[in-house]
Write a structure and sequence with these properties.
- The complex is a heterodimer.
- Chain A is of the alpha+beta class.
- Chain A has two domains: about 1-80 and about 155-170, Alpha-Beta Plaits (2-Layer Sandwich); about 85-150, ACT-like. Chain A, domain 2 (Alpha-Beta Plaits), CATH 3.30.70.
- Chain A contains five helices and nine strands, in the order βαββαββαββαββα.
- Chain A is elongated.
- By secondary structure, chain B is α/β, with parallel strands linked by helices.
- Chain B has three domains: about 5-185, Thiamin diphosphate (ThDP)-binding fold, Pyr/PP domains (Rossmann fold, 3-Layer(aba) Sandwich), CATH 3.40.50; about 195-350, Rossmann fold (3-Layer(aba) Sandwich), CATH 3.40.50.1220; about 360-545, Rossmann fold, CATH 3.40.50.
- Helices cover about 35% and strands about 15% of the residues of chain B.
- In chain B, the strands form four sheets. A six-stranded parallel β-sheet of chain B has the order 3-2-4-5-7-6, sandwiched between helices. In chain B, strands 11-10-9-12-13-14 form a six-stranded parallel β-sheet, with helices on both faces.
- The radius of gyration of chain B is 25 Å and the shape is globular.
- The relative contact order of chain B is 0.11.
- The interface of A and B includes residues 14, 18, 55 and 180 of A.
- The complex binds thiamine diphosphate (TPP) and magnesium ion.
Chain lengths: ~180, ~575
């Protein structure tokens, strides 16, 4: 089963290595891991999707909390309580004979065409993991030439209590960028 | 020097160490750490020059285990730094607080494969609690202060601070207060979970056959008094892990002794029959559980450990509490009902059965010298008051079985990593931490040969440790497995040794050889009386095996017992 973890970390060089190393060493199977900046320059946010049972996911959370650079870890609940988004770029073979059919499908999936070449289209699609998989499956018969996905970015719906509590203890202006690996 | 005056990064390193209370460091110099060594002479710190950087870590580890203080290591870049890895892994697995400081090539050369450049922060990532690459003098103090805080806090462990040569040479002002560490407190355990405490109490109340599993965490938490108070109040016996030995006294009436692979059969049986396990600061290592599926099948389980990631890891438990053991027990104690569990204690006594008869220490002297005899005699002769530092192998298990440790921090041994070569350097560190203690090394002929160059460190530093080399001519523990599980094919386990008495002479220390039990007492006294470090070689029975034993993968009660005296009489020492 897949579990979604949101990990807030110091924005320092090497933090991604620490997190990835932890998952590798403990044998937690990463489905996707994305990282990016947040509303606060000194904090990064990772979304990690792990394929594992509930107990192992919980242990992954406890291991993450032992990393000095980790501010807080949230294990998002399953189902509709989260917004989970993935972005895909799909280069699909679409010569003149098939082009209109492909464009129709793009419409149905509310995706966008971002590049048009003689025999191919590049389609951009944002959505849940399921939606993207469905689009990919639908386009497969036309011939997918290249597929790139960002991996999931996730957020709980509503106002989760834990985040407010979690981020509060962060002090600013203490660590300098070059200090920590 | 006032705080406002600028200092070199090298000076800031020592300034930080001294302010953290460090008076002894273990190290080895080299190019990339030279500015730091150059500044050392200005500070009141004793530097112990080792013969190999791995030993520097083991010394710092022994120093920390013996005293509870943070051990400190200094080494150069490249090979100096990589030589630390085994020591760091050893400390990591046994939760020893250490700070290792390594020199690194100049920051401008990082990533160019410069002379003696290795990515030591990358290499040590999985064997440290945390590590730092410091490239500017102004980051030295914050990094070192935080390193100490991280090493000490929560579940302790080793931290490495890699400092580039230019960061050691350039200058910065000292802002001690501004560098106060705080990130190590991000994940302090939440307040005690009252519901979990209530559940634990209820389980203790209902239990008819409870048993405490006493681990290393008792020592790390300083919870000896609380554990004993709970055990006595509720009349609960305790079994110990290898690293738990000494955390609570071996000669206490409720002490059952060591559990697990080489624990006594009746102790393991007690665990298998128990209806409640109270696991205190231990982590259900495979060496203590045997086959997990059949582990303590009738028992409810309460697990208290400061490290939340240890809870429900291998053994699912009924009550899991991630907190400092002492805090939990202090909260529980007033509510724990006074009980009398003499029926349960009686059945455990019954299971001892003929164990004592089979026990080699009770057999008549047949002229052979057994390591078990040596350990038993050493315990008697030192009145159980020595700090014993053991290496890894059969002798380590015999020590654990026959030296009854009552005092806290009185047995230092590499449990989690099982690192051969640990004993001598760790003992030197222990002696420096506790000069008043009588420190004994118990090492095998194999492991001793891994690090015996440190004898010269002991001589140079004028440190007295007493050394018992248990010479069985084999990598004995491996030979035992070959005897039991590989049809006696002794591949690469016979090992030759130098003449240890002559070796002692070459190092300028007292040396003696013992072949019979009758000589043991005089030799031990001779070593104790010798002015400096002293070595005794005990030529013991070559093909003796450690019993009882849970074969790897078998259930905890499924033990190979000690051969009975009649079998012994027919076949000599080893029936296998
Ligand atoms: C560094 C290291 N290498 C290998 C081993 C595997 N090992 C465990 S016990 C042992 C034999 C130890 O022999 P010795 O030091 O003579 O002690 P004995 O078992 O004979 O008492 C070996 C090789 C180890 N634990 N550590
Ligand atoms: Mg040996």
């Amino acid at each position: 089963m897949s579990h979604v973890l949101v990990v807030y970390t110091d924005d320092e060089p090497g933090v991604l290595t620490r997190v990835a190393s932890l998952f590798r060493r403990r044998g937690f199977n990463i489905h996707s891991l994305t990282v990016g900046p947040t509303e606060r320059p000194e904090v990064s946010r990772m979304t990690v999707v792990v394929d594992t049972d509930e107990a192992t996911a919980r242990r992954a959370v406890e291991h993450l909390r032992k990393l000095v650079n980790v501010l807080e870890v949230q294990q998002l609940g399953s189902g509709g309580v989260n917004v989970v988004r993935d972005l895909a770029l799909i280069r699909v073979s679409a010569g003149p004979s098939k082009r209109s059919e492909v464009l129709q499908l793009v419409e149905v999936f509310r995706a966008n065409v971002v590049d048009i070449a003689e025999d191919t289209l590049v389609i951009e699609c944002t959505g849940s993991l399921a939606k993207i998989e469905a689009l990919v499956d639908t386009l497969r018969p036309f011939g997918i030439i290249e597929l790139g996905r960002t991996g999931a970015v996730a957020m709980a719906r509503g106002t989760p209590v834990s985040r407010k509590a979690a981020i509060a203890p962060l002090r600013t202006g203490t660590s300098s960028g070059s200090m920590s690996v | 020097m006032s705080e406002a005056e600028s200092r070199t990064g090298a000076q800031l390193i020592w300034e930080s160490l001294v302010r953290e209370g460090v008076d002894t460091v273990f190290g080895y110099p080299g190019g990339a750490i030279l500015p730091t060594y150059d500044a050392m002479t200005e500070y009141p710190v004793r530097h112990v020059l080792v013969r190999h950087e791995q030993s520097a870590v083991h010394m710092a580890d022994g120093y920390a285990r013996a005293s509870g203080r943070v051990g400190v290591v200094v080494a150069t870049s490249g090979p100096g730094a990589t030589n630390l890895v085994t020591g760091l892994a050893t400390a990591m697995l046994d939760s020893t607080p250490l700070v290792a400081i390594t020199g690194q090539v100049g920051s401008g050369l990082l990533g160019t494969d410069a002379f003696q450049e290795v990515d030591i922060t990358g290499i040590t990532l999985p064997v440290t609690k945390h590590n730092y690459l410091v490239t500017r003098a102004e980051d030295v103090v914050p990094a070192i202060r935080e390193a100490f805080a991280v090493a000490r806090s929560g579940r302790p462990g080793p931290v490495l601070v890699d400092i580039t040569k230019d960061a050691q040479q350039s200058r910065a002002t000292l802002d001690w207060e501004g560098a106060k560490p705080w990130r190590h407190q991000r994940h302090l355990p939440p307040p005690l979970d009252q519901a979990a405490l209530a559940e634990a109490l209820e389980l203790i109340r209902q239990a008819k056959r409870p048993i405490i599993l006493a681990g290393h965490g008792i020592q790390l938490s300083g919870a000896r008094a609380e554990v004993l108070a709970l055990a006595e109040r509720a009349d609960i016996p305790f079994a110990l892990t290898l690293l738990g030995l000494g955390a609570v006294p071996a000669t206490h009436p409720l002490s059952l002794g060591m559990m697990g692979m080489h624990g006594e059969a009746w102790v393991n049986r007690a665990i298998q029959e128990a209806d409640l396990l109270l696991a205190f600061g231990m982590r259900f290592d495979d060496r203590v559980t045997g086959k997990l599926k059949e582990y303590a099948p009738h028992a409810k389980k309460i697990h208290i450990d400061i490290d939340a990631s240890e809870l429900n890891k291998l053994v699912p438990v009924d009550v899991a509490i991630a907190a400092d053991l002492g805090d939990v027990l202090r909260a529980l104690l007033p509510e724990v009902p006074v009980a009398d569990r003499s029926a349960w204690l009686g059945s455990i006594r019954g299971w001892r059965g003929d164990s004592a008869v089979r026990d080699i220490k009770n057999l008549p002297d047949d002229g052979h010298l057994y390591a078990a005899h040596v350990m038993h005699d050493l315990w008697r002769l030192t009145k159980g008051e020595a700090v014993v530092v053991t290496d890894v192998g059969q002798h380590q298990m015999w020590e654990a079985q026959y030296y009854k440790h009552d005092g806290e921090r009185s047995l230092l041994t590499s449990g989690g990593a099982g690192t051969m070569g640990f004993a001598l350097p760790a003992a030197i560190g222990a002696k420096l931490a506790r000069p008043e203690a009588e420190v004994w090394v118990v090492a095998g002929d194999g492991g001793f040969q891994m690090t015996f160059a440190e004898l010269m460190t002991a001589v140079q530093e004028d440190v007295k440790v007493n050394i018992a080399v248990i010479n069985n001519g084999f990598l004995g523990m491996v030979r035992q497995w070959q005897a039991l599980f590989y049809e006696g094919r002794y591949a690469a386990t016979p090992i030759l040794s130098p003449d240890f008495v002559k070796l002692a002479e070459a190092f300028g220390i007292h040396g003696q050889r013992v072949d019979t039990r009758g000589e043991v007492a005089a030799a031990v006294e001779g070593a104790r009386a010798a002015k400096g470090t002293a070595l005794i070689e005990f030529k013991v029975e070559q093909e003796d095996s450690v019993y009882p034993m849970v074969p790897a993968g078998a259930a905890l009660h499924d033990m190979i017992r000690r051969p009975s005296p009649s079998v012994l009489a027919e076949t000599g020492s080893d029936p296998v």
